[in-house]
Structure formats: structure tokens, C-alpha cells
Amino acid sequence: MFNQSSFEVFNISGLEERMAAVRSEIQPVFQQIGDALIPELEAALERPFYLHIAQHRRRTVHPPENTWAAVGEGKRGYKMAPHFQIGIWPEYVFMWLSIIDQPQDQKRYGQTLLTALPEIKQLPADFVINKDHTVASLLSLDEAESALERLVKVKKSEFQMGRVILRESPLWQEPKNALTEILATYRQLLPFYELLTEEA
Fold first, then answer.
1. Which of 24, 45, 78, 153 is at a distance of 20 to 30 A from 30, taking alpha carbons?
2. Do 94 and 199 meet the contact criterion of CB atoms below 8 Å apart?
3. Using CA atoms, how far apart are residues 108 and 186, in angstroms rounded to an integer?
């Protein structure tokens, strides 16, 4: 499970050096979470899911400022449809339901979630949204309506919602409890994922 060493990876200078630490310190945790999450999703939806761990192969100079893995129904990739993400910035670990990188049905996804806005607003108070997967910014659920309206109208917009666990959280000292919290977050996001994909 993630621990303080996981967050310290982002203090390492140099692309190769940081990527070596990402592979040894963080990616095994992504695999562990994926191994726990995928059977739950497959049992709930009766469809196959796949884990995609970011490899950052396009980087040639600058080391990654964060890293992530995605779980989705696409065997070859995940960005073309809504998917779940688990990832880590220097400040926190995030658990998202993600719509990023201009998927073909982006407008419909936004419209679908707008119809579920009452249910989104009933999520626990510690749920947050993000409007740009490349930026470590967190907004309250109060911003969800305007973010979803933008997703419908603006091609280059994105929408992610879920929960974060801060670096300083005592949960990281209790790996089983941390995994329980992570999986519980995805269970609360699952109805929205199901809504997004039921017409696909």
C-alpha cells in the first residue's frame, strides 16, 4: 500500500531515476488495488475490466509530476470512455471516475451526469471534483453542475469526481484500512459509471 516513501518518489531528480522509483515503489500498489477492484467491478456489471498502468514512455527529459493507473472496459486503452483512476500526486492519492482527453461521446457523458446531479450532490461531503487531469486542483461538489455544463459545451474540457486521501492521513499507517477506503470510494462511484455506460 502507499506509504510516505511513495510520496517521496516525487522528490527524486532525473527522469530515469524517478521512473525507477515509480516502478518499484508505486506501480506494485497500483497492481494490488487493480487486483482488488477489478473482480468487484466484473461481479457488479458482468463485463470484463482491465488495468492500465501509466508508463510515461513519451517523456524524454522531465520526470512525471504524478502517476496513475486506470481501470476500464477497453482492453487496448482507457481514455476513449469513462473509467476509474487511482493515482498519486506529491500531496495526495486520488480515486476518480474520469472523463478526460475528449472521448467521442463526451457531450452525452456530460448530459447524462447532469441528469444525475441530485445524486452527485448527495455524495459524502469529502467527495471532490477536478476539471483538468494534468493539474492537482480540487473543487467541491458545488462546482459539479458548472463543470458538467462545460463538459457538454467545450471540447477540451474534462471532468473527474471522487475522493482524495492526503499524504498526511493516518490511513497510510494501516494498509488494510486504506485499501478498504479506496474500494469503498469506487463502490460509491459505480452507479454513476453504470449510468454513463448503460447506453454504450
1. 45
2. no
3. 22
38-46 long-range CB contacts below 8 Å, 24 or more apart? 38/71, 40/183, 40/186, 40/187, 41/71, 41/84, 41/186, 41/190, 44/190, 44/194, 45/194
pTM of the model: 0.95
Q: pLDDT tens per residue, the chain (200 residues)? A: 999 999 999 999 999 999 999 999 999 999 999 999 999 999 999 999 999 999 998 888 899 999 999 999 999 999 999 999 999 999 999 999 999 999 999 999 999 999 999 999 999 999 999 999 999 999 999 999 999 999 999 999 999 999 999 999 999 999 999 999 999 999 999 999 999 998 65
